[in-house]
Amino acid sequence: MPKRTDIETILLIGSGPIIIGQAAEFDYSGTQGAKALKEEGYRVILVNSNPATIMTDPNIADRTYIEPLITPVLEKIIEKERPDAILPTLGGQTALNLAIDLYEKGILDKYNVELIGANYEVIKKAEDRDLFKKAMERIGLSMPKSAVVKSISEAEEVIDWIGFPVIIRPSFTLGGTGGSIAYNREEFYPKVKAGLDASPIHEVLLEESIIGWKEFEMEVMRDKNDNCVIICSIENLDPMGVHTGDSITVAPAMTLSDREYQILRNYSIAVMREIGVETGGSNVQFAQNPKTGEFYVIEMNPRVSRSSALASKATGFPIAKIAAKLAVGYTLDELSNDITKKTPASFEPTIDYVVVKIPRFDFAKFPEADPTLTTMMKSVGEVMAIGRTFKEAIQKALRSLELGRYGFYMGLENVDENLLKEKIIKPNPDRLWYIAEAFRRGFSVEEINKLSHIDIWFLNQIKEIVDYELYLSTKDISTLTEQELEKAKQWGFSDRELARLLKTTEEEIRKKRPPVSFKVVDTCAAEFEAFTPYYYSSYESLSGKVEEDKIIYYRDSE
Amino acid sequence: MEKAILALENGYFFYGWSFSSPVRETGGEVIFNTSMTGYQEILTDPSYKGQIVVMTASEIGNYGINEEDSQSDRVWVNGFVVKDVPNVYSNYRAVESLKSYLEKNNVLGIFGVDTRAVVRILREKGVMKGYIGVGDISPVEAVKKARSIPDISELNLVAEVSKPSVYRWTQKSWKWPKGYEEQTEFHYKVAVLDYGVKRDILRLLADRNLELICFPYNASAEEVLSINPDGIFLSNGPGDPATLTYQIKQIQKLIASEKPIFGICLGHQLLSWAFGSRTYKLEFGHHGGNHPVKNLKTGKVEITAQNHNYATDETKLPQDVEITHINLNDNTIEGMRHKNYPVFSIQHHPEAAPGPHDSFYIFDEFYNLIKECKK
């Protein structure tokens, strides 16, 4: 079935100013969506209060309003432009909240405007904790023990059943604002009060703490024929307890067997169907008990999210663009994969590299803020790095943070052991470097796992990098073999870090080390030819070809 | 850790490091698999007999090896090639590392290889023979050895992977948290022709209360029919279907018996020959867990697990065979149904293991077909 012809004008709501929890990724998704809809011949009306966005450039939409994102303004725009439909799923939480309000005030009915992508019931079901919980019960999925309360006295009634520590999540807030964890009764009451105050509807969710469980995310897409595909799985290096936006995340998931991966795949699709997202992308978050394998559903976003932006760039699958096309009636098999051209968009990307995202914090500018990471998002940005291995990707990500650190070294030799342990127990922006320092001091993977609950797979990867760093520092550039230098580059050591460890200059390292290989992000692990790929750098092993009269050696670069 | 070389018959070679086993060398048909999870299932899938498998996902071995996910009782691949393999694995079900598992099974695994470069060559030049050697082997020698490996179509691989005698299967599918449970109900009797059947196929049939009696690959049609089965299942398996002329003849007799028949992968390919069509070799095969298949009856797209190098020749299929499923990447046949006999088959792997579960419904269709025919 081709696109819908009963609608002509579509209103797209942007996400407004850049704030913690809602940043440039929604400009990225909105711009993609607007372009995709225009490409299909729809008249696109855009409203966003933030002029410093690509989407508000004159050539993106047919008509752009730079106006406050509030219901009365939206109503005026609707009255004037008479859109047939609103696509509220590309503008983050702001756009969804506005869509809900427009519906509840009867404005959509009055002007006969349809919500596409996600309708009112869907948004409510996904966003309202109670409705969501009931929906999950209907499809037999477990969630942490929880209760929604609207007052301190209601909170008191349920806290014994839930137990401590308890997570306090205010309803309908951006990036988990006002959220916290209480470890005892003393902390509990003031934190519940703060949460109630932060919620626009004066409501908080009290939730069983599953701190230390592993955390996973799935990016799902669905079309109107109920075709569902998983675009990307993501594993959080930081276990439950740290907001996803503040977590170091890795794609694809690293420690799931196929049995478990398929459980999450089935659950994600079941959640999407039960919540009723008819078309577009959603993000479903899960926690796993590392000892028993039990999964809990944590939440779902019935819209393009921060993670979708990461998943798009991590896989080469343009989630927002495809979501916009699905919203106007296309099915996944009718759309083509932008990168391969010849294969359809109804497939699941497979990747032959590892992607690591590390959030960027700026506590120097906010001296009052507590740098402990909790369920409330505090990061102001993030870096994403691609490498052929986890080690390469994480080391690239570390130096991309522009903190003046070129690997796992930040000069913590003089930190006393108690502080070191505390910085590993309590999530904070420098935790990775404290962990590395602990390994330098001889801590074992098991000890750090006990302190941090970070999975031993990740910890051992970091330990191996640190061990190799220590080995390299016993060498100098003249005693290091070619093979050892190749390994260092494949493990993501920067020229600069190597120069420091090997007591030489970056220029010397560059002269001796293997040349860079450029590899491609193509959605399909090279199975099909890529026409519009993008590239990342890596250091590949030697390949070659035996020809009639000679042997050619090369490191493959695309 | 010793240096290793992977050489292809067309002269390309790739360096890496051995990570397993006292085995010093191996050869086989080199294929790549794009599944991001499920290496244990892939290693133990009898259909990979005769092949060196290159995994495209770059970190392999992370969740170790467990006691539950194997698709047979041993590793069948001739060799295993990955980009990176960890020294520590992590998963609540894991009991040992990928390294030790391959060592126990005497299978050579190498890592550090530019697997993407291998895939790019296989994609362009097609599947080919390859050789892996550990130690100081010159590229010229390695390529020569790759060329001397017998072609997969010259090998009788099914005979090596099939169980030699008749057996019963009663284990149902894995479910969290209980794991495996035994079958308690038996509605219809099904004869399984085991050409190298994967355990999860049997489990999905057992889930549907089918009483499974498995026959070796060389069982005659008469033997199979002697138990008076209500349905017949033709399994997956390794190698070139064109070489299995005895089996194709038996299948023609089974079709003539008018019993309900369901084939998967090799079973599907053998049915193609039995119907009077043929199979041809795909350039680089389909191996992975992300292939879009369209069900032509419902119009819906299933994401499927695939592992095959041969496909049914559509132009030679008789009029009374209907195509039910196609692959949307290259439009090859993924499923067919005979219009006059209760016979249907699927080219891909509806049982997944590893892969998405979108096609489990096909096992229901087999059950329903048997029920229908019993009436």
UniProtKB/TrEMBL annotation, chain A:
<keyword id="KW-0055">Arginine biosynthesis</keyword>
<dbReference type="Pfam" id="PF02786">
    <property type="entry name" value="CPSase_L_D2"/>
</dbReference>
<keyword id="KW-0436">Ligase</keyword>
<dbReference type="GO" id="GO:0006526">
    <property type="term" value="P:L-arginine biosynthetic process"/>
</dbReference>
<dbReference type="GO" id="GO:0004087">
    <property type="term" value="F:carbamoyl-phosphate synthase (ammonia) activity"/>
</dbReference>
<comment type="pathway">
    <text>Amino-acid biosynthesis; L-arginine biosynthesis; carbamoyl phosphate from bicarbonate: step 1/1.</text>
</comment>
<dbReference type="GO" id="GO:0006541">
    <property type="term" value="P:glutamine metabolic process"/>
</dbReference>
<dbReference type="InterPro" id="IPR058047">
    <property type="entry name" value="CPSase_preATP-grasp"/>
</dbReference>
<dbReference type="Pfam" id="PF25596">
    <property type="entry name" value="CPSase_L_D1"/>
</dbReference>
<keyword id="KW-0665">Pyrimidine biosynthesis</keyword>
<dbReference type="InterPro" id="IPR005483">
    <property type="entry name" value="CPSase_dom"/>
</dbReference>
<dbReference type="GO" id="GO:0004088">
    <property type="term" value="F:carbamoyl-phosphate synthase (glutamine-hydrolyzing) activity"/>
</dbReference>
<dbReference type="GO" id="GO:0005524">
    <property type="term" value="F:ATP binding"/>
</dbReference>
<comment type="subunit">
    <text>Composed of two chains; the small (or glutamine) chain promotes the hydrolysis of glutamine to ammonia, which is used by the large (or ammonia) chain to synthesize carbamoyl phosphate. Tetramer of heterodimers (alpha,beta)4.</text>
</comment>
<keyword id="KW-0464">Manganese</keyword>
<feature type="domain" description="ATP-grasp">
    <location>
        <begin position="133"/>
        <end position="328"/>
    </location>
</feature>
<dbReference type="InterPro" id="IPR005480">
    <property type="entry name" value="CPSase_lsu_oligo"/>
</dbReference>
<dbReference type="GO" id="GO:0006221">
    <property type="term" value="P:pyrimidine nucleotide biosynthetic process"/>
</dbReference>
<dbReference type="InterPro" id="IPR036897">
    <property type="entry name" value="CarbamoylP_synth_lsu_oligo_sf"/>
</dbReference>
<keyword id="KW-0028">Amino-acid biosynthesis</keyword>
<keyword id="KW-0460">Magnesium</keyword>
<dbReference type="InterPro" id="IPR005479">
    <property type="entry name" value="CPAse_ATP-bd"/>
</dbReference>
<comment type="pathway">
    <text>Pyrimidine metabolism; UMP biosynthesis via de novo pathway; (S)-dihydroorotate from bicarbonate: step 1/3.</text>
</comment>
<dbReference type="InterPro" id="IPR011761">
    <property type="entry name" value="ATP-grasp"/>
</dbReference>
<dbReference type="GO" id="GO:0046872">
    <property type="term" value="F:metal ion binding"/>
</dbReference>
<keyword id="KW-0547">Nucleotide-binding</keyword>
<protein>
    <submittedName>
        <fullName>Carbamoyl-phosphate synthase large subunit</fullName>
        <ecNumber>6.3.5.5</ecNumber>
    </submittedName>
</protein>
<comment type="function">
    <text>Large subunit of the glutamine-dependent carbamoyl phosphate synthetase (CPSase). CPSase catalyzes the formation of carbamoyl phosphate from the ammonia moiety of glutamine, carbonate, and phosphate donated by ATP, constituting the first step of 2 biosynthetic pathways, one leading to arginine and/or urea and the other to pyrimidine nucleotides.</text>
</comment>
<dbReference type="Pfam" id="PF02787">
    <property type="entry name" value="CPSase_L_D3"/>
</dbReference>
<keyword id="KW-0479">Metal-binding</keyword>
<dbReference type="GO" id="GO:0005737">
    <property type="term" value="C:cytoplasm"/>
</dbReference>
<comment type="similarity">
    <text>Belongs to the CarB family.</text>
</comment>
<dbReference type="InterPro" id="IPR016185">
    <property type="entry name" value="PreATP-grasp_dom_sf"/>
</dbReference>
<keyword id="KW-0067">ATP-binding</keyword>
